[in-house]
Amino acid sequence: MENKTTKGTRGMVELALMSAIIIVMAMTPLGYLKTPFLSITLLTIPVAVGAIILGPKGGAFLGGIFGATSFAQALSGAGMTAILLQTNPLGVAFLCFVPRILEGFLCGLIAKLMRKTRFKKAAFYIAGISCPVLNTILFMGTVVALFYQTEYIQTLVTSLGAKNPLGFIIALVGIQGVIEAVVCGIISGTVSLTLAKALKR
User: Fold this and answer.
1) Is the pLDDT assigned to residue 9 strictly greater than 90?
2) Is residue 13 scored above 60 in pLDDT?
3) CA-to-CA distance for 149 and 152, rounded, in angstroms?
4) Which long-range contacts (CB under 8 A, 24 or more apart) does 111-116 make?
């Protein structure tokens, strides 16, 4: 039986490994499928796996790493956040970090609570799907809350023919959000379930 020191060290190693995976994916084509306005991100996969295996705190930390890579992309001039950065840098920092930290924490919490029920196997997939869904809801909700009245977003609203903020989110994210949730959810659930069995969690 492992002691607290050994358990803590193992947890730190696992957290470092998952963080490295997020950074590598963010710096290569493995992390994003590009679209004209948004990127379908696959980075929710390691965040979800880490949150399920390591719990809410681990999920929050990994969400923060995800957020850091998003902010780095904004600074490098890539995507929507780079354009919004010119309008409100602090708002973009909030947009990149807070929704991602919350998604990791909530994903881990969902997994923790679900695994206490009789639906232990389903818990991995429910939590896995929750991560990309939360990512979309929290990220786009923050975009609307902080940037909806900006010239850039209003131009998108007009071009998409959206009548209100909800219509804008649906029109912009649309089918790609559903694809992201399904793909990332299935992969996250399968990987985390396999790891949990291997690690006897």
Assistant:
1) no
2) yes
3) 8
4) 111/51, 111/52, 111/55, 111/192, 112/55, 112/56
